[in-house]
């Protein structure tokens, strides 16, 4: 574990990413305390530019709502969607990939054709269709994102399992009388973990982007303030009040960038032999 | 003036390594046309010393002291650019694993031509002509076809010949060979050794030969250096070091070499067979043969039949690809045989499945070749040892108790329980692997190249341990190996396999000293260091 930190720290970008992410997390946690009022509440005249009035640091939007409060509450939504949808995607992708890789043969063929079925449809289009069918609530946004993002997990896990299942320690476990489930859970998956963790960190970033895009199109939960919604609502006034789109845009950019940097750092720390030479 | 002079060379390891220097106080000379063998076990610094000459040390490892003089010119600390000129043209190197040292996507001819290109020698057509000559010289069968082949189309020995051809391309003064025959079969090894010897005589080239095998040393060395944990403990002419070793470490290494002549005749078997194999068949095929490509079929087991008696050790020997491992894996049902019967205790396990198979298989356990990949890197030793017992219904506490006893049995401390496999050396890991195989109280142990990955002295210890455990626990053993000397040391009977078939079977003494088939004889002839062994016999 200490080695892990040493190698992670070695990648400066990853440390910066971790710092930014920590800020976003703190913002999300503190949002309901610092801004106890609903971010939908109108507090001042519309189009108040940033830094003009005390107590409204980033000004107001087209309906006179506090932009800073919106950003803070949006951070919570983005992180929640990113995290939960990734967990759901892993919960689908890991078992599918593990079974396909371990049992091989017909089961592998069936599961992989099923996975490819999802991969052939453009993921964003599929997410839009799913949300158009179900009602646009936060739960369904998360489900839609998870449904479109599990196939890469399944493929990655399958590849790892395929190479691990022929290793001698797995054969030894078979001879020790262990069942298939035990072998997969205790011997194969723990060794396949590092690339899965790296992929997961990048999937969170992907999910945040997807959620923002869906909210931008007005397909998000109408009761929840999110960064994508803020950009979408401000796009008509971009020439007169550009900061209304710019600020949430920056929030998305920084969060996604932070997660990507962390993903790269995790990759360096968990797969030390693949680390690019620094000199 | 010698061709290469090394004085007081010290190579520092990065901080946090298990010792400060990879090698220190290294002094030796190499003359024109001389073969110098550097012998030592893994981690002795023998490869590092040679790599320093090439200027090819891994990252973080640096020479900190001493000089290397080549042809009257100091070369330690030369710039990368100047080393590039030297490498390949004056000093070249061949490696242990020729497959990973060759570019898989380039034809052999192009790879040899590339060596000339890198040094700006010759024109395009000349390069090709020279490449062909080189392939002739290293004795590749059908060089005209080989020059157009990709590396995967060649056998291990042929690939090593290509590597040697590349190393010789620019007529170097020194060839450094780092364990070039370790990955090869005995027969191929003998051919490569002869090739190196011939080339040395024809070209007057000096050779630094790094190996852990004293048999190989005895066959080719003029002078020998023995290294232990980064220091030279003994050096001298081959005869001095091999026949009159001074240092206790050298003596221990020489004593550890398994001998062909060691074993007494096994007594006639009177007990009942514990394992009977009848007409075992296993065929591997690649490609479906339906739509794409041609179907390739490899017959890894053809009508294999034998009996293993209680308390007996049978050795299955053969070259790689002879199907010996396939047979072992079919017996424990890691592979399912296509036909034939495997009778254990009167029941045929070849076609069982599910719980029935699980119950029967308990009696058959396996020891694997590679102690590094046969233990789950993320599991503690206690889990590795107790897992099987718990899976068969032993309560956890009892299983832990048993695991401690097992560790003691294989000569490890009970404190090993809470450690991870990477905290142990190769020999210790193999002991853990043995303990795991014994955990379920099996009657039959199948050891698949169980000592091939270990150093000679460790090899001897593990073989002794296996022999001891066999008598104490009344086990029967099937010992799969490519090394006839190892088989001679531990086996009562020997089965020789070739291309999936049993070509000869009989008592160890008979098979090893008076074989019926030419194939077995050719395997025996290829064992390195036989004259030396006879010399040792005569001396004692």
From TrEMBL, chain A:
<dbReference type="Pfam" id="PF00528">
    <property type="entry name" value="BPD_transp_1"/>
</dbReference>
<feature type="transmembrane region" description="Helical">
    <location>
        <begin position="124"/>
        <end position="150"/>
    </location>
</feature>
<keyword id="KW-0813">Transport</keyword>
<keyword id="KW-0812">Transmembrane</keyword>
<dbReference type="GO" id="GO:0005886">
    <property type="term" value="C:plasma membrane"/>
</dbReference>
<dbReference type="InterPro" id="IPR025966">
    <property type="entry name" value="OppC_N"/>
</dbReference>
<dbReference type="InterPro" id="IPR000515">
    <property type="entry name" value="MetI-like"/>
</dbReference>
<keyword id="KW-0653">Protein transport</keyword>
<feature type="transmembrane region" description="Helical">
    <location>
        <begin position="196"/>
        <end position="220"/>
    </location>
</feature>
<dbReference type="InterPro" id="IPR035906">
    <property type="entry name" value="MetI-like_sf"/>
</dbReference>
<dbReference type="GO" id="GO:0055085">
    <property type="term" value="P:transmembrane transport"/>
</dbReference>
<keyword id="KW-1133">Transmembrane helix</keyword>
<comment type="similarity">
    <text>Belongs to the binding-protein-dependent transport system permease family.</text>
</comment>
<feature type="domain" description="ABC transmembrane type-1">
    <location>
        <begin position="75"/>
        <end position="263"/>
    </location>
</feature>
<dbReference type="InterPro" id="IPR050366">
    <property type="entry name" value="BP-dependent_transpt_permease"/>
</dbReference>
<dbReference type="GO" id="GO:0015031">
    <property type="term" value="P:protein transport"/>
</dbReference>
<dbReference type="Pfam" id="PF12911">
    <property type="entry name" value="OppC_N"/>
</dbReference>
<keyword id="KW-0571">Peptide transport</keyword>
<feature type="transmembrane region" description="Helical">
    <location>
        <begin position="241"/>
        <end position="262"/>
    </location>
</feature>
<dbReference type="GO" id="GO:0015833">
    <property type="term" value="P:peptide transport"/>
</dbReference>
<feature type="transmembrane region" description="Helical">
    <location>
        <begin position="12"/>
        <end position="35"/>
    </location>
</feature>
<protein>
    <submittedName>
        <fullName>ABC transporter permease</fullName>
    </submittedName>
</protein>
From TrEMBL, chain B:
<keyword id="KW-1003">Cell membrane</keyword>
<dbReference type="GO" id="GO:0055085">
    <property type="term" value="P:transmembrane transport"/>
</dbReference>
<keyword id="KW-0472">Membrane</keyword>
<keyword id="KW-0067">ATP-binding</keyword>
<dbReference type="InterPro" id="IPR003593">
    <property type="entry name" value="AAA+_ATPase"/>
</dbReference>
<dbReference type="GO" id="GO:0005886">
    <property type="term" value="C:plasma membrane"/>
</dbReference>
<dbReference type="GO" id="GO:0015833">
    <property type="term" value="P:peptide transport"/>
</dbReference>
<comment type="similarity">
    <text>Belongs to the ABC transporter superfamily.</text>
</comment>
<dbReference type="InterPro" id="IPR027417">
    <property type="entry name" value="P-loop_NTPase"/>
</dbReference>
<dbReference type="InterPro" id="IPR013563">
    <property type="entry name" value="Oligopep_ABC_C"/>
</dbReference>
<feature type="domain" description="ABC transporter">
    <location>
        <begin position="275"/>
        <end position="524"/>
    </location>
</feature>
<dbReference type="InterPro" id="IPR050388">
    <property type="entry name" value="ABC_Ni/Peptide_Import"/>
</dbReference>
<keyword id="KW-0547">Nucleotide-binding</keyword>
<dbReference type="InterPro" id="IPR003439">
    <property type="entry name" value="ABC_transporter-like_ATP-bd"/>
</dbReference>
<dbReference type="Pfam" id="PF08352">
    <property type="entry name" value="oligo_HPY"/>
</dbReference>
<dbReference type="InterPro" id="IPR017871">
    <property type="entry name" value="ABC_transporter-like_CS"/>
</dbReference>
<protein>
    <submittedName>
        <fullName>Microcin ABC transporter ATP-binding protein</fullName>
    </submittedName>
</protein>
<dbReference type="GO" id="GO:0016887">
    <property type="term" value="F:ATP hydrolysis activity"/>
</dbReference>
<keyword id="KW-0813">Transport</keyword>
<feature type="domain" description="ABC transporter">
    <location>
        <begin position="4"/>
        <end position="254"/>
    </location>
</feature>
<dbReference type="GO" id="GO:0005524">
    <property type="term" value="F:ATP binding"/>
</dbReference>
<dbReference type="Pfam" id="PF00005">
    <property type="entry name" value="ABC_tran"/>
</dbReference>
């Amino acid at each position: 574990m200490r080695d892990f930190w040493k190698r992670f720290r070695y990648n400066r970008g990853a440390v910066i990413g971790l710092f930014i992410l920590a800020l976003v997390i703190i913002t999300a946690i503190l949002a309901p305390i610092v801004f106890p009022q609903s971010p939908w509440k109108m507090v001042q005249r519309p189009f108040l530019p940033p830094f003009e009035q005390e107590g409204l640091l980033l000004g107001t939007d087209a309906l006179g709502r506090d932009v800073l409060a919106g950003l803070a509450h949006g951070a919570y939504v983005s992180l929640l969607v990113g995290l939960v949808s990734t967990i759901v995607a892993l919960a689908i992708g890991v078992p599918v990939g593990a079974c396909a890789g371990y049992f091989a043969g017909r089961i592998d063929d069936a599961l992989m054709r099923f996975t490819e079925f999802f991969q052939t449809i453009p993921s964003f289009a599929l997410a839009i269709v799913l949300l158009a069918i179900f009602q646009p609530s936060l739960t369904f946004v998360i489900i839609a994102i998870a449904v479109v993002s599990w196939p890469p997990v399944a493929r990655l896990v399958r590849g790892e399992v395929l190479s691990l299942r022929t290793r001698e320690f797995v054969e030894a476990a078979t001879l020790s009388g262990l069942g298939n489930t035990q072998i997969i859970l205790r011997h194969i998956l723990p060794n396949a973990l590092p690339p899965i963790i790296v992929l997961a960190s990048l999937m969170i970033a992907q999910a945040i982007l997807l959620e923002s895009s869906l909210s931008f199109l007005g397909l998000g939960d109408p009761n929840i303030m999110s960064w994508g919604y803020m950009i979408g609502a401000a796009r008509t006034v971009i020439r007169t009040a550009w900061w209304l789109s710019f600020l949430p845009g920056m929030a998305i950019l920084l969060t996604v960038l932070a997660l990507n940097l962390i993903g790269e750092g995790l990759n360096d720390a968990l797969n030390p032999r693949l680390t690019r030479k620094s000199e | 003036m010698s061709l290469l002079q090394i004085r007081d060379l010290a190579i520092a390891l990065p901080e946090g390594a298990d010792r400060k220097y990879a090698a220190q106080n290294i002094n030796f000379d190499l003359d024109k046309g001389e073969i110098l063998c550097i012998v030592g076990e893994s981690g002795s610094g023998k490869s590092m010393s040679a790599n320093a000459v090439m200027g090819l040390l891994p990252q973080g490892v640096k020479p900190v002291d001493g000089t290397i003089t080549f042809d009257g010119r100091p070369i330690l600390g030369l710039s990368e650019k100047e080393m590039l000129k030297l490498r390949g043209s004056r000093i070249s190197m061949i490696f242990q694993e020729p497959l990973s040292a060759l570019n898989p996507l380039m034809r052999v001819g192009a790879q040899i031509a590339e060596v000339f290109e890198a040094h700006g020698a010759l024109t395009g057509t000349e390069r090709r002509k020279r490449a062909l000559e080189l392939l002739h010289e290293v004795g590749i069968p059908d060089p005209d076809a080989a020059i157009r082949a990709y590396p995967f189309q060649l056998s291990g020995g042929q690939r090593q010949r290509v590597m040697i051809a590349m190393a010789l391309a620019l007529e170097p003064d020194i060839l450094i060979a780092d364990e070039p025959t370790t990955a090869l079969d005995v027969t191929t090894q003998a051919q490569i050794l002869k090739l190196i010897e011939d080339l040395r005589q024809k070209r007057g080239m000096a050779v630094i030969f790094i190996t852990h095998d004293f048999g190989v040393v005895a066959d080719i060395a003029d002078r020998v250096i023995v290294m232990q944990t980064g220091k030279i403990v003994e050096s001298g002419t081959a005869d001095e070091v091999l026949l009159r070793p001074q240092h206790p470490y050298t003596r221990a290494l020489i004593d550890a070499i398994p001998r062909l002549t060691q074993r007494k005749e096994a007594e006639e078997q009177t007990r009942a067979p514990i394992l009977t194999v009848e007409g075992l068949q296993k065929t591997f095929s690649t490609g479906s043969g339906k739509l794409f490509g041609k179907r390739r079929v490899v017959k890894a087991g053809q009508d294999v039949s034998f009996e293993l008696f209680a308390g007996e050790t049978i050795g299955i020997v053969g070259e790689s690809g002879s199907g010996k491992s396939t047979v072992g894996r079919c017996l424990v049902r890691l592979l399912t045989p296509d036909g034939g019967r495997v009778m254990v205790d009167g029941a045929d396990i070849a076609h069982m499945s599910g719980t029935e198979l699980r119950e029967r298989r308990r009696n058959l356990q396996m020891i694997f070749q590679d102690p590094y990949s046969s233990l789950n890197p993320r599991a503690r030793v206690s889990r590795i040892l107790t897992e099987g017992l718990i899976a068969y219904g032993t309560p956890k506490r009892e299983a832990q108790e048993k695991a401690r006893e097992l560790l003691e049995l294989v000569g490890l401390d009970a404190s090993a329980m809470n450690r991870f496999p990477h905290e142990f050396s190769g020999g210790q890991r193999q002991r853990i692997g043995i303990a795991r195989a014994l955990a379920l109280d099996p009657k039959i142990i199948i050891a698949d190249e169980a000592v091939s990955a270990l150093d000679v002295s460790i090899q001897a210890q593990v073989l002794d341990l296996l022999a001891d455990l066999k008598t104490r626990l009344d086990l029967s053993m099937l010992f799969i190996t490519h090394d006839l000397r190892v088989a001679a040391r531990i086996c009562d009977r020997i089965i020789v396999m070739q291309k999936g078939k049993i070509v000869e079977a009989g008592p160890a003494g008979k098979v090893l000293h008076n074989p019926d088939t030419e194939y077995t004889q050719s395997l025996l002839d290829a064992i390195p260091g036989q004259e030396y062994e006879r010399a040792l016999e005569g001396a004692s």
